[in-house]
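User: Second chain of the day. Same drill as before.
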Amino acid sequence: MALSGCGSAGPTGGPATTTIPTRDPSTSGASPTATAPGSPAPSAPSAPKRQVTIAIGDDERVVDLFEPAAAAASKAPLLILLHASGESPFVMAQEARAGELAAREGVIVALPPALGHRWNVMVSAGDPIRKSADMVYVMGLIDRLAEDLPIDRGRVFVAGFSIGAVMSERVACQFADQVTAVALNAGAPWSDQCSPARPVPILVMHGTADNTFRIGLAGEVVARWRAADGCSGDPVMTQLSDIATAEVNEHCAGGATVEFVRYEGAGHRWFANPDATEVMWGFFAAQPSR
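Assistant: Same format as last time:
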């Protein structure tokens, strides 16, 4: 069935156990039009957006979809962006400048909404893993979009912010064979269990002054994936800006890469120095097709 638009706009897991406050975008530390080293100009062209009603089984949601003109000519990468708790696809698209990224890189960007504005994804240590309607929807969405749009199934990426980042890590843990790479911005481990079917390239970005998900949680995610991806040797350190440092492990099984970017003194936000969208897409673009 073809995707049907509804107008333009300007499978496992228990309930989350961490309370994440709803954020005011004005305090995020990175407005949608802010410039930063490596970021596109605020006036950069944007791919057209449409809102599409997509049902996965009985679960029907309205997805924000950016389709660049270049995608009609050949198979395009797919990027699923997952918003923070209390936010929406609209806010996530603004923070990440999804339309500009789609237009510039020729990537189809889809932003689904969580039920109740919060992804049902986190599991406390020792708790059983239960089915999550949100996880079922996101993975079903990838299949549906690949059926109806010119998407390269070998280049499917998932990224998220805050609880959306937790959701992204869960995708990597449980559906490694269906995604090419994932990125976490200010996230945390989804549970104490993770058995990926293959090595997955993963990018973790985190602020050292994050009071929602402490920097130590990001460290746990990185350590887990260095082990899961069979990385060897010490990471290569690179200074990205006056506040950001990257630790990159490239000697990992299956050609995977694990990258950890620390933003010194930064809180819980979509980062701006360097721009998190540019760091994310640079990481994704460098990964081999699955």
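The helical segments are 89-96, 98-105, 133-148, 163-174, 215-228, 276-285.

User: Great, on to the next one.
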